[in-house]
Amino acid sequence: MLLPLALSFCALAAASPLVQKYRPLVLWHGLGDSHSSPGMLEFASLIGEMYPGIFIHSIYIEQDADADRKATFYGNVNSQVDMVNEQLNDIPELKDGFDAIGFSQGGQFLRAYVERYNDPPLHNLITFGSQHMGVSEVSECRRYDFLCQIARRAVKNGVYSKWAQGNLVQAQYFRDPSNLETFLEANHFLTSINNEVAPIDGRNETYARNLASLEHLVLVLFTKDVTVIPKESAWFGSAAEPDESDDSLTVMQEKILGSTTSGEETTIIPMRRQPLYLEDWIGLRTLDEQGRVILETCEGEHMQIGDCWKPLVKKFVGSPA
Ligand SMILES: *[C@@H]1O[C@H](CO)[C@@H](O)[C@H](O)[C@H]1NC(C)=O
């Protein structure tokens, strides 16, 4: 008696237009975190409360949580993004496309997925405190986080060495504006996704076409972020080359044209003044000119996310599937 009833209920539910089906969501955690940490599980469950029944996938490099956390420090980012592409392709729920949220470095890694693969396609990408223009310093570690401390020391020992660039995650988005030449030669991840090195046959147009196909790119900057240096990297800002910021005329122009100053000395080149943007190497300008790049802030230090995510998730996640 019960069984047929249950079956007919299922059939009814599937056929009913009243049952809301949401576009699936993919999450990519940050440095020192794992796909199944308490924080990530809680975040996923809060989104599940907002959109009952929404399908959520939390990206992993390793299924074991400790190994996954380790892979946020050690590994080859290009290979990790390749692997994630395969992982996403194996999930039937995602086959018609999805939205995604990237925390910290997970944000630029998701952008790499969009630019290189985007099949299945991403609709809205939200990145929180990500390092889209890299970092010019390696951030401090928590006191007893030895995994972090060892990785940090290794990065500081030779960030542009072949080994570091192939094996230390943070080194692969380290971009020192006072030594761009070495960065452009040594780096094979950030230079690539920012289309900053033009290969002989030009910049990769697939990257620009794919990024420009997003519905929205939502870039969230933490106002008191001292972990990401400079914090404006979350908005595609970067520190000016030292000779530029020493030139007072340039500094004046930067100020007039709307640059912000971070700390005492550093002049920040904002997104809309980056060559990457001006020449539209990655489709960012195309997106922005259509009003589809959303610059948002959260008050506080890096990843002090509080309730700041709620209006963004309300607006950019949970579209009808
Ligand atoms: C551009 O990127 C796509 C996607 O990663 C790749 O398949 C293609 O070979 C690249 N093209 C060039 C000219 O490097």
Automatic annotation (TrEMBL):
The organism's taxonomic lineage, starting at the top: Eukaryota, Fungi, Dikarya, Basidiomycota, Agaricomycotina
Gene3D superfamilies to which the protein is assigned, alphabetical: alpha/beta hydrolase
Keywords: Disulfide bond, Glycoprotein, Hydrolase, Signal
Enzyme Commission number(s): 3.1.2.22
Superkingdom in the source lineage: Eukaryota
PANTHER family the UniProt entry points to: PALMITOYL-PROTEIN THIOESTERASE 1, PALMITOYL-PROTEIN THIOESTERASE/DOLICHYLDIPHOSPHATASE 1
Signal peptide: 1-15
EC supergroup of this enzyme: hydrolase
Entry protein name: Palmitoyl-protein thioesterase 1
GO molecular function: palmitoyl-(protein) hydrolase activity
Family of this protein: Belongs to the palmitoyl-protein thioesterase family.
